[in-house]
Amino acid sequence: MRKFLHTLLDYLPIQFRVLYRQFLLRVVDLEALSMHADIPKLLGQFAGVLIMFSLIQAAAAFIYSLNPPATPEAQLAMAWRTEQGLISTMMLIVGLFVVFTWDSTFPDRRDAMVLSPLPIRAGTILSAKIAASSSVLGLAVVAFNFASGVIWPLVLVGFPGVLRLFVAYWFTMIVASVFLYCLVLTVQGFTALLLPRRFFLRFSTVLQIAAFGFFLGVYFLQPTLTTPSELTASQNQSILSASPSFWFFALLNQLNGSLPLSLAWLARRAWIGLAIAVLGAVTSLLLGYLRTLKKTIEEPDLVPVSHGFHWMFRFGSSLNTAVLFFTLRSLMRSRQHRLVFAFYLAVVFAITIRLLPQASPVGSRRPMSLEFLAATFMMMCFAVVGLRRVFSLPISLAANWVLRVTQLYSSQEYMAATRRSLLVLTVLPVWLGEALLSLSIRPMSQIVAHLAVLGLFGFIVCDISLIGFYKLPFTCSYMPGKANIQFVFWAFVIVFLPILGGGAVIELQALHHPLQYAGMMSVLAAVSLGLWAFNRYRAKSAVIDFEEVPQDVITTLGLTVIQPLVSDLGQHPVH
Which of the listed residues 365, 423, 449, 569 has the most CB atoms within 10 Å of its CB? Predict the structure, then answer.
């Protein structure tokens, strides 16, 4: 297969091949990476996570085949639930992908400065960028469906109709991904065309953050309709007409020949939406490359702040104040950093939306629930870990020398200032938000007790995330290959989530037993104090890093077995 792809590329023009390879490696912003970064390894780790999801889906299909529903109605409900879940998850993955690669398809400042003086047609640049983005998008689609896209059709319909459902399933997944990808390109492209470049740079980030929240909110809040009566009910028609995942669910069943005639209008919406999205994307891309390729040279990557009166409050020492405001202004001015942090905030926002329906009037008495406790812990984790991950991405490597030559304090003080900034920007806002969400819970003593536990938990998560982090925020190059995304992801799912659930159970029990609560608080306080002391002690001898490099690996040749022979030769030299 690899030889076939290389042979196919050899028939393409040399300019397209060179640009395609470069754009394929630039799906991730190179300005934020270390010179030793292994981008293919990073993409491979993302693909590994999706492959594991596909294997889990295939295992679920195998378990389902061992004990299928007894009645045809139950079998139909199970099949529709599975189809809707797979389509919704695939569209979520594609939506997050296109938002992460928001600027990878349209021309940026680097393209205009490097490629404009060269004798390369804009169409070649455009086709190479589309091919590179489509390759990564196709990799995501195949990785997520390679096992589930084969096993589920076989389990749902059996051998007589498996071929038709197999073709319908893969075609639907591909066109649904293309629809969402083209839709985001259309919105971005026409926004860039209608707004002046300066305002687009500001508004583009708002669109990215809104897209994160929208995709995650729709995924978690959208209902699953599994029976013909639910799909034809009048109260569900507005949801069906506005949800593309239901459109392509209807398209899948239309291609498979199992769609009721009353839902044929949903399949027509899928075809119409796909045509409009593709036409809009092609139009916006062509106009974008013709009108904005040269104008981007004049615009900086960091949008300048507006002029006016700026007041800076004191946050402890001058070093603490400087680090805090450097962090705030970096997040406010850099689109890349806001985008990465927005992903974690969107998860926090989605969890908050899940908790809002449980809210009741303040006067009513709703006891503390296990779901509420686990959700608050989850929100604190995602907020702290999200900003900690953003700290690792540099804002401008060329300006690092300023921070190096002005290092007037000990490394311990710099690390303490970084910790305080992380606490102020994540732990404090989430804690205040949880306090507002807790207003509907009674008795009030449980609110106060839980907020105390949540505050200590935030300190613990903050100190754990800073273990070995001897850097200033946004000042050190990033090496993505160093972090094993597959290991971190599955460790979070398999280890950390059960720990959070177990902690929520323990706290719920302790809220009704004062002695047990006092013991739990003592343990949390001791762990928090120990982690703080450990990080402070390690920071005394730490050296602040400004460039990530791979660790030196000493490779031995395994020649220790000939040591006696060498000793003998030393005693009896050969003449």
Answer: 449
Residue type at 329?
Answer: R
- Close Cβ partners of 220 (under 8 Å, ≥ 6 residues apart): 350, 353, 354
Mean pLDDT of 271-293: 83
**Contact (Cβ atoms closer than 8 angstroms) between residue 97 and residue 54:** no
Residue type, 177: S
Instruction: For the chain, give every domain's residue range.
Output: 16-298, 324-540
Task: Report the C-alpha gap between 68 and 185 in whole angstroms.
Answer: 42
User: Where is mean pLDDT largest: 4-8, 128-132, 288-292?
Assistant: 128-132
- Is 76 buried (19+), middle (13-18) or exposed (0-12) by CB count in 10 A? middle
How far is it, in rounded angstroms, from Cα 488 to Cα 441?
34
DSSP per position, 192-245: HHHS-HHHHHHHHHHHHHHHHHHHHHHHHH-----SHHHHH-GGGHHHHHH-HH
pTM for the model stands at 0.70
Residue 341 contacts residue 388 (beta carbons within 8 Å): no
- Dist. CA 521–CA 524, nearest whole Å: 5
